[in-house]
Structure formats: C-alpha cells, structure tokens
C-alpha cells in the first residue's frame, strides 16, 4: 500500500508530478477554508446578492437589498449560489450555517485548482513535468493567490479563468507532444466530467424533492453518486477499448479523434443552464424595440443563443482533438468576461496581440480559428450582458446597468479614478510593484535569478524561447494595463501574478536540474531584496491582510491589526479546536508571529542563494530549501494568519449572538455602518440607520433592541440615546476587535 501511494505521486513521472502538485495545492487551499466568516465587504455583498438570487429564483437580474446590483457581472454569484442552496443560506430568517463560508468559497478553490492544472499541462508540454511541478509549488505558496483564493469575490474567478485561458493558448501554440506510438487509452477527463454532472443532477433532484435534508447528507449523496458513476464509466470505457467500439470515453490516437464529447457536453450545460434561467426568470421580460418591432429581450437573446449554438455544434463536432486547448481558451475567455467584465476579453486579446507584434509572428492568426473561436466566446459570455442592457431596473444610486457597469465601473475606473487608491493621490508606476512584492513573498526574492536566467538563456529548444517571450509579454501587458488605470486597489495586481509565477517556476525547475548557475552579484541582489521586503512586512504586518480588504481611505491599518487578536472558538473556527473536541482560547502577538514567519522564510531563501553562489552542482538541494521557504509563508498565511484574523473582519459571530439571544420581535440595527456583512448574516432583516433621531425611534419601541456599531462610535451612540438609556445600554458581544453587538433594554 505504501509503495502504491508513493508511486501515485512520484514526481519522476508526468502523472505522478501532476497528482503531487494538485494534492500539495489542495492541502494548502482547502483545510480551514471556512474557519472564519465571510470577511471583506465585497465577499459579503456578493454572497448577499447570491442569497437573494437563490431565495427568489431569479438568476438573471442580480439584486442587493431588493434593488438592482450592477457593479459586477454574474459569474461569482452563480458560483456562490450552490453553496448557499446546500447549506440553507438562502432562507429568509435564522442563523447562517457554520458550513456556509466553506461551501461558498469551495467553487473558488476548485477554479484555482483548475487553473493550476492548466498551467501544469501547458508548462509540461513546453518545458517538461519537473518545471511544471515547480510552477504549481510556487503558485500554491504565494500569499496573493492564497488570500484571494480564500474569498468568494470576483477577483479569483477572473484570475483563474484568464490565467487558464492564456496557459491553454500558450500550450496550444508552443507545446510539442512527445513522440510515441499511438496507444488507445481511457479518456479520464470524460469519466470524471460525466460523473460530476451525474452528481450535480442527483443534488438538484434531492434539493427540489427534499430541501430540508441536512447539507451533510446532500453532500454525501453527491459524493457517492460521483464515485459510483465514475466507476461504472471507467468499466464501460475499458470495454470500449477491448471491443474497439465508440470513442466517447476513450482516446485512440489514430488520427480519428475529434473534440471530446465531454467538452461539448460541458459547453452545452453552460449554455443550456443560462437558457433555462433566462426562460424561467420570474420577472417580466423587458421589451426591446428594434426597428419598430417590440421583442421580448430574454426570448430574443435565447433564440439567438439556440441558433448560434446549433451552428457552432455543427462546426465543432468535426474539429480535431488537438484543437481542444484552443477552444478551451475561447470558452474560458467567455467565462472571464462573465467574471469581471470587459477585461475578460481585453486582457487575453491584448496579450495575444502583444506577442504577435513583439515576435512578429503573424502566422499565429492562421492557427487560432478567428471565426468559430470568438463565436464560442460570444455564446458563453455575451447573452447575459445583452439581457442586462435591455433591463430598465435601477440600483441603489438610481443608475441603470449601462450607466453603472459601463460608465461608472469601467470607463471611470480606467480614466477618472473612483474608490480605492487613485494616481491623482500621487500613486503611479511603483504602486503594484510594492504589493506584488508582498503578495509574492518569499518568491519575489528569486526574481533577480529568474531574470538573469531569462536574459542568459541562449539554448532554448523547440517552443521554449517563444513561450518565455509570451510570458514576458503577458507580464508587461497586464502590469501596464492595471498601472495605467487611475483607480487602484491592492488586489488589482493579481492578474500579473500568473506570468510571474510561471517565470519563477521555470527558474526553480531549472535550478533543481542544475541548469542555473549562481553568481555572487545575483546572490547579493537576492539578499538586498529579501531584506527590503522582509523589513516592510515586519514593520507593517497588516500588508498581507490589505491585499484582500478595504480600508484604504477611511479605515486605518493600526485599528484593524491589533497587537493581540484572540481566535474566537466555535464550530465554524475549527483551527481553534484541539482534535475537534477541546475548545481553547488563543491570544497571539501578531507582529511577532508575522516577524518570525518572515525572518524564517527570508533566511532559508538567502541561505540557499548564498550556498548556490559558492558551491556548484547542488541545485536540487537548493530548490528544496526554496520550496521550504515558500511553504513556511504559505502555511502561515493560509492556515493561521487569515483564518484567525479573518474573524475580526466578519459579522458572523456578532449576528449569531443576536439570533441566539433575540426574541422574535427584537430588531437588529446597523448604526452608521455599511460593511455588507451585517446584511448577509442578518439575511437583509437589519435596519440600516445613520442618524441618531431614527435610532431613538427604533429603540423607543417596546422590547429589546440590538445594535451593531463600530467600537469607535459606541460612545457617540450612547450619548445620542441620552440619559434615559444610560443604564440600559449593554455590550452583548465584544468578541470582535472592530465592532460591538449592543443590547438596549427598555428603560
């Protein structure tokens, strides 16, 4: 058994390296994924949009607090809804399940693992499986990816789909299959895709027939179905191999393989589900006047989708299997557009055009199917936008979808600057460099060596040199795009991480194969860079948390990074339980803990570079030390830093206390705050109150009133209630370092 397990993840072989890399990433991403409630205002707001969507059965027109929500496209909410459905988070009243954060965030992690799989496939085809494994190790221990991957916000679907799309395109353009004899085999992706689809069908049936069934049982039914169907399909595939029958579960490699059925089925599910939602939407279908005709907008779009889907199916079913990565690229571009908007097609298009111009390789245009490919992207990503442009509804600021999404959230963010940090406040070229350094620590220390290897590489074979140029163009284009935007957030640099990770992974893989030679100047640059970045993280230990939170203008870091922040211990924060049974209270000196983690990671990387500078031929040992350096930071950030600090960015425990102690008629007031988490956890039942007069009107009603208030505004709230309530105001829950839950009794 032990030998079989070792062989299963043996990095000396391609499949073993892939399994090892994905298992390594999953063991960092998945544990304690739901250890804290939904954190940033964005995560809670998107979850509330998905909750209202799921509760109303309206998966077309997103709403927040029962009015239009047009700031972001729909994909994140579509991905979030299943977790809410399974855990009961869509219901109209009561506490949110402690499993909800895990279920809501899990699709983001699965998307990230898919992006890592695509990166491995691409890098393996071009550079070999050792370098592909190194890329996964670098990516899965980078704080930027770890923090973004642990939140259900639009940035992770955008990052994952765009990255997977560009890696698929890179592998298609520059990869070369190893020469080998044609060998028929089971199409493993087909087995698992069809098995997962069967599991989803079972979950939908159980959810519709018996929605009261506990989420744990529903997940168990889904898992059993997937495993059972996968086993049956695997047996059917082997019979196909024996009898030389149908190809839908097998690959023959005899020149007759077409685009796999599982890929076409997956596309059909994505398109078909959209059509189902558009047809069954409970809202009236807005009328779209076109040349004197009054056409129902959703039905018109659905008719166009059906026609386009039919034409594309007639074309795609005859395409060769080796074009799967190309059409995967186009499908992912469509999904990326649904994830974040126009950047979903602008960024991949700019990267591809930038490479063609830089390499003057116009022959690429002959290989990328410029008719059927873009048509596939339009089929996947365009229909929802067309429907929304015809929608007359308005948001909280009385803006239409066009004025909010296109004008405000695209044009003004690029040119005028809204929210966040703006170049008008003196922020320019160095802005993303700083936060990329924090988000890529400790791998940012390897950049001097990676750049030196890239410059000195004159022995590139096959498509390696072109692939490296593609990565460099990807890096430069994405960096310039987000640097030239007037509006800046720390997390806007996330799309730049993918090509950086790939370039560092190529260097790490070459180091492990003794293909990189250190020099004292490169080692010195590594040390200087390490000291500079480590010193910043030690002095400003909240910078990692800043990568995924929102307090750039009105909220000061020192207020939200206390020197002592205790981990609150309940069933949802499993990190604070010993063996799952013994509750403990943990107090941490966060600056000290961050300092220790940063110093240890820096020391390991510096020692590896110094050792390499003065002793040749020890690259494999050095690479293991570098991985250990990344692992120290990755485990600390993913399994300690974010789960425990995240509890002080969420309203989960405070609103949970309200639901445990309230009487049915007791109101919950959110006083002078709009963090959105209070709305999600209270299921949009809270009173949003900003003035003291209105607060007194609520409190003066018979019975107990409950108030969520920032700690800095607590004294002002007490004064606004007056002497009548002086002895009636009690802090009911002070477990959070930012907010109080306050109980106000009748005088």
Question: Which labels suit this protein?
Answer:
747 residues; alpha+beta; five-stranded mixed β-sheet; two-stranded antiparallel ribbon; 30 helices; 59% helix; globular
Would you mind describing this structure in some detail?
The protein is an alpha+beta fold and 747 residues long. Among the domains are: 431-649, no CATH class; 652-744. Helix content is 59%, strand content 7%. α25 packs antiparallel against α26 (619-645). The model is unreliable at 552-557 and 563-585 (pLDDT under 50).
Explain the layout of strands and helices.
Layout: H1 2-8, H2 14-29, H3 41-56, E1 63-64, E2 67-68, H4 75-87, H5 100-127, H6 129-139, H7 143-148, H8 155-174, E3 185-186, H9 188-209, H10 215-243, E4 250-251, H11 261-280, E5 287-290, E6 293-296, H12 297-316, H13 324-340, H14 343-359, H15 372-381, H16 383-389, H17 401-415, E7 421-422, H18 431-439, H19 447-456, H20 464-484, E8 487-488, H21 494-512, H22 520-539, H23 543-546, H24 557-560, E9 564-567, E10 577-578, E11 582-583, E12 586-589, H25 590-614, H26 619-645, H27 652-661, E13 668-671, H28 677-681, E14 687-689, H29 692-699, E15 705-710, H30 714-721, E16 729-733, E17 739-744
Parallel strand pairs: 13-14, 13-15
Antiparallel strand pairs: 1-2, 3-4, 5-6, 7-8, 9-12, 10-11, 15-17, 16-17
Helix pairs in contact: 2-5, 2-6, 3-4, 4-5, 5-6, 5-8, 6-21, 8-13, 8-14, 8-20, 8-21, 9-10, 9-11, 11-12, 12-15, 13-14, 13-15, 14-20, 19-21, 19-22, 20-21, 21-26, 22-25, 25-26
């Amino acid at each position: 058994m032990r030998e079989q397990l070792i062989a299963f993840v043996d990095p000396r072989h391609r499949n073993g390296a892939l399994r090892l890399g994905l298992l390594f990433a999953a063991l960092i991403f998945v544990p304690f994924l739901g250890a804290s409630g939904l954190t940033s205002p964005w995560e809670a707001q998107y979850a509330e949009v998905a909750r209202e969507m799921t509760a109303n059965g309206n998966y077309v027109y997103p709403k927040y607090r029962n009015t239009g929500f047009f700031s972001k496209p729909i994909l994140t909410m579509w991905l979030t809804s299943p977790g809410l459905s399974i855990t009961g988070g869509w219901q109209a009243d009561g506490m949110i399940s402690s499993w909800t954060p895990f279920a809501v965030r899990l699709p983001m992690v699965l998307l990230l693992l898919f992006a890592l799989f695509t990166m491995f496939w691409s890098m393996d085809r071009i550079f070999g499986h050792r370098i592909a494994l190194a890329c996964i190790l670098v990516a899965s221990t980078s704080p930027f990816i770890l923090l973004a991957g642990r939140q259900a916000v639009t940035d992770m679907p955008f990052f994952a789909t765009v990255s997977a799309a560009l890696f698929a395109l890179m592998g298609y353009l520059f990869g070369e299959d190893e020469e080998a004899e044609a060998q028929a085999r089971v199409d493993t992706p087909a087995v698992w895709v069809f098995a997962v689809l069967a599991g989803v069908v079972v979950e939908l049936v159980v959810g519709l027939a018996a929605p009261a069934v506990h989420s744990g049982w529903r997940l168990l039914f889904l898992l059993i179905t997937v495993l059972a169907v996968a086993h049956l399909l695997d047996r059917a595939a082997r019979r196909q191999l024996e009898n030389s029958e149908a190809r839908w579960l097998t690959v023959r490699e005899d020149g007759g393989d077409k685009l796999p059925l599982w890929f076409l089925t997956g596309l059909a599910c994505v398109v078909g589900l959209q059509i189902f939602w558009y047809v069954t939407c409970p809202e009236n279908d807005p009328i779209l006047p076109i040349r004197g005709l009054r056409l129902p907008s959703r039905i018109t779009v659905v008719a166009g989708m059906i026609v386009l889907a039919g034409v594309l199916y007639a074309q795609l079913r005859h395409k060769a299997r080796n074009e799967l990565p190309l059409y995967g690229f186009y499908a992912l571009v469509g999904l990326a557009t649904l994830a974040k908007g126009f950047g979903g097609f602008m960024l991949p298009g700019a990267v591809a055009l930038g490479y063609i111009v830089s390499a003057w390789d116009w022959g690429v245009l002959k290989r990328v199917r410029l008719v059927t490919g873009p048509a596939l992207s339009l089929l996947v990503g365009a229909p929802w936008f067309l429907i929304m442009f015809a929608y007359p509804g308005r948001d909280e600021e009385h803006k239409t979808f066009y004025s909010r999404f296109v004008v405000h959230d695209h044009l003004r963010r690029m040119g005028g600057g809204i929210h966040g940090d703006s170049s008008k406040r003196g922020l320019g070229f160095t802005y993303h460099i700083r936060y990329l350094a924090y988000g890529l620590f400790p791998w940012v220390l390897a950049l001097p060596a990676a750049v030196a290897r890239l410059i000195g590489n004159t022995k590139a074979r096959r498509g390696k040199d072109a692939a490296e140029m593609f990565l460099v163009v990807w890096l430069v284009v994405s960096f310039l795009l987000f640097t030239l935007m007037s509006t800046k957030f720390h997390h806007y640099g996330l799309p730049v991480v993918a090509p950086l990770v790939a370039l560092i992974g190529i260097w790490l893989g070459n180091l492990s194969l003794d293909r990189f030679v250190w020099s004292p100047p490169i080692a010195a640059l590594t040390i200087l860079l390490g000291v500079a970045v480590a010193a910043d993280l030690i002095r400003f230990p909240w910078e990692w948390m800043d990568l995924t939170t929102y307090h750039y203008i009105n909220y000061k870091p020192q207020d939200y990074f206390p020197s002592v922040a205790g981990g609150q211990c309940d069933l949802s924060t499993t990190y604070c339980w010993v063996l799952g049974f013994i509750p403990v209270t943990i107090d941490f000196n966060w600056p000290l803990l961050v300092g220790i983690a940063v110093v240890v990671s820096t020391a390991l990387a510096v020692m590896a570079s110094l050792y390499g500078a003065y002793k040749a031929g020890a690259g494999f040992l050095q690479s293991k030390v570098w991985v250990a350096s990344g692992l120290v930071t990755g485990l600390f950030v993913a399994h300690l830093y974010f789960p425990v600090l995240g509890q002080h960015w969420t309203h989960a425990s405070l609103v949970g206390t309200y639901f445990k102690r309230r009487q049915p008629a007791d109101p919950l007031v959110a006083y002078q705050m709009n963090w959105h988490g209070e709305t999600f956890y209270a299921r949009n039942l809270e009173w949003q109150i900003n003035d003291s007069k209105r607060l007194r009107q609520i409190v003066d009603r018979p019975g107990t009133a409950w108030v969520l208030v920032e700690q800095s505004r607590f004294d002002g709230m007490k004064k606004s209630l007056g002497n009548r309530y002086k002895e009636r105001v009690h802090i009911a829950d002070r477990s959070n370092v930012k907010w109080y839950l306050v109980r106000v009794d009748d005088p």
